[in-house]
Amino acid sequence: MIPKGLTLQARIYFILNYILNGVIKLGKKVVVTGVPGVGKTTVINGAMERLAAEGVSYEPVNFGTFMFDVAKKENLVSNRDEMRKLGKDVQKRLQQAAASGIAAMSGDANIIVDTHSSVKTPTGFLAGLPEWVLRELMPDIVVLVETDPDQILMRRLGDESRTRDMEGSRAIAEHQEFNRAVAAAYAMYTGCTIKIVRNENFLLEQGIDDLVSVLR
Ligand code: AP5
């Protein structure tokens, strides 16, 4: 596709031109965020199933799992809910490792990353996608999955597989507000769009529809 015998500069020029003209298509990078227990994974799984039936494929990636694999290997934690209690600098190092691992995945595949806009740590909110993570991921879209804080509280209480932080509806509402604020910064930095997907009780299909509409 690229003529032979060109200088490196000329080859880069050709590749950029092909990308700009749609000859080479880069995959879509979509980051899905939301407070713990809002139903990110549930909505993502539903959307993947729907899209697979339409022949659209995405590689689902869980950012926390990338971090957990490294943290477990270093004997830092025994379960994923302990990670947000680690020192800020350790969490930042784990974020960096996860971001590099994800960035190393194929550039032309569509990727959907299940993660957090911000993480509630004992010393305050930690940005889930700080500059060094964004630079690696460069998302096209950041999705915020949200619902009413009372519903999130009930979902957390009903999920015995996890060690959730005990907090009330007001604290959950504040966390959702902070997530919107920090997502605005992500949009400013990368030029990505921000999509809000509601995942209400009894209306999961509507949330899935909404996510599918931006993934197609
Ligand atoms: P991760 O495992 O991603 O954390 P999480 O948010 O706690 O994930 P969950 O899977 O528990 O929540 P979910 O929102 O996916 O809800 P689910 O679909 O399961 O990350 C673990 C850790 O990694 C983090 O705590 C953090 O330390 C670290 N981490 C990750 N990214 C990071 C980053 N960028 N920077 C720093 N650290 C990072 O659903 C929950 C329940 O609700 C289920 O029972 C489900 O059946 C139910 N439900 C869902 N939808 C509905 C509905 N519409 N109606 C009724 N019930 C519903």
Q: Characteristics of this structure?
A:
216 residues; globular; alpha/beta; 49% helix; binds BIS(adenosine)-5'-pentaphosphate; 8 helices; two-stranded antiparallel sheet; five-stranded parallel sheet
Structural description of this entry:
The protein is α/β, with parallel strands linked by helices and 216 residues long. Helix content is 49%, strand content 15%. It is built from 8 helices and 7 strands, in the order αβαβααβββαβααβα. The strands form 2 sheets. The chain has a 5-stranded parallel beta sheet, with helices on both faces. α2 packs across α8, α3 crosses α4 and α6 packs across α7. The mean pLDDT is 92. Bound molecules: BIS(adenosine)-5'-pentaphosphate. The site of BIS(adenosine)-5'-pentaphosphate (AP5) has 31 residues, from α2, α3, α4 and α6. The site of BIS(adenosine)-5'-pentaphosphate has 31 residues, from α2, α3, α4 and α6.
